[in-house]
Amino acid sequence: MQKIPMTAKGQQRLEDELRRLKSEDRPAVIRAIAEARAHGDLSENAEYHAARDRQSFIEGRVLELESIISSAEVIDPSTLSGTSVKFGAHVELVDEETEKENTYQIVGVHEADIKLGLISISSPLAKALIGKNVGDTVSVPAPGGDRSYEILKVTYR
Question: Which fold has domain 77-155?
């Protein structure tokens, strides 16, 4: 089985979701199914069908999370150092066209969230950054044409 790189925070977030699904959502949907069954004819019972669909989603997500967590290889970025970009790095960039600065952390596929500044190791930007150093310029293909970024700072925390 191939290991999936992940930060400790990302693994904790997935474990929290799994725990919530098992301890809160699963029992709630079982109660909803039982309540819907009490209403009688199941063939025309929208509440019953909605609860069964929700149960199916929850069970599928539980299996998915268990699989992801079991194959996770947790990497602690705070143990890393240097000026080259690696998994877990916080990278401060400046867009050479707009002069806008952003900071991103390179994380595992299952923990990426661009709104939080977490980019997947498999994203085009992360692929372009890996192995580069402070001061380097990278070109990243984007829908509106290639974008160029200069690496201002690389930290591990």
Answer: Chitinase A; domain 3 (3.10.50)
